[in-house]
Specification:
Strand content: 5-15%
Number of helices: 15
Shape: elongated
Number of strands: 5
Largest sheet: 5 strands, mixed
Helix content: over 70%
Low-confidence stretches: 322-327, 459-471
Strand order of the largest sheet: 1-2-3-5-4
Mean pLDDT: 82
Radius of gyration: 54 Å
Distance between the termini: 74 Å
Length: 471
Amino acid sequence: TARVYIDKRDDKKSRWTNQNNIAHLIFRKKDYSTAKTGYEELLNDPNLFKDDKKIYGKALVSHTYSRFKLGEREEDLNERYHEALQAYNEIDYVGDIARTHHFLAELLAAQNKPKAAVTEAKVALELAQENYKNERQLEVLRLLTELDPKNAVAYSNDYYALSEQIKEEERTKRDKFARIRLETDQVIEQNTVLTRQKQIWIGVVVGMTLLAISVFMIISQRIRNNKLKFEQSQQESNQEIYNLMLGQQGKFEEGKKLEQKRISEELHDGILGEMLGIRLVLGGLNERTDEQSQGQRAELIEKLRGVEEEIRTISHELSHASYQKIHNFIVSVEEMIRNIEASSGIACSFTYDDHLDWDDLQGDIKINAYRIVQESLQNCVKHAQCENALVDFDCNKQNLTLTISDDGVGFDTGKGKKGIGLRNIVSRVKKINGTLQIDSKRNKGTTVTVDLPVVYQNIDGESTGQELMEA
């Protein structure tokens, strides 16, 4: 499993370590033939010696010893051990040197080189002692007992003493572990008691927490209900204010129409009548024969006729305008756009869906739609440096889409702070649960698209749009 994972990672050092560990386990089971094959697969990698001399040395020593155990006695085995020792010296690694000298001593003994074998065995013993390799010391002492009969007794005594020391240390460790186990059992028993007490306290805390959460949820629900009631009441109040504004504006427009009609009648019946009488008198006086009088009177008659036509035109326009239906939402938007166009010099155009009765929309929708258009056009005037602006209203059963676009300098929507105008637009869109999208690029103009939910309602009277400007 580990090898599959390492292969997926393509980590060569981890792969070498894993291969060496597998071969070492087989080596310890004394299956030298299989171990030899495993080490050969590792040593055949040309990068091993260059990149990891430690694993290279371990694999080389174990591979050589496996060959020795399989009956090989060639001189190249000695060279292989020395090659491993050289690799260890290059990286200053001492952990496996005693083992290498031990295996070399066994090889020399098998090659009938007793003196050299004893020398290597003593080096292995000294290194094992320096590095506290007790198991290695016992194996080397056993080997020296066989290789050096003259000193066999001394080696045997050292072997016995070391073996007894190891046993004593093991007994000490067992006693220590026994005490630790006893103390651990006592601690476990105490922990069991404490755990029970802890569970009781946890139960109490959980119960209190649940009670507190329940109380909090009840209070929160009441607060939420009161908030909803307040918002509903506020919306009803806003609608009532809107209706009052509608009624007030209706009365204002009604008085305006009456005044326009009165002026029209006064102009037509009073001033025009007087002007007609003057023209007739001047026509009679024009019968005088002197040229100067005739020229003056003819000139005056023409001037009076011009005044007559001008007054008649004004009268007709006032009379016609007084009966027009001007108090509605779309007309209010048109008037606002015309005013901005006249004051700014920007060519503004306005299109809308004329199949929809816009006055049936809820008051909040109309007020905020009006303000959004107004704020967007004011931004065009202040910042866009544009020549043309387009306002489009598109509506279906679910959504009202407002589109305000210009051909100005544009801006980077991802940088800079939002001005108060843009923040007002965002606030109004959020207030009526709409969505806002702003598309703008440098020197490419800006397009503001607002999608608002359509909510209809029955309103007595007609909307004039004046309340939009006063909201």
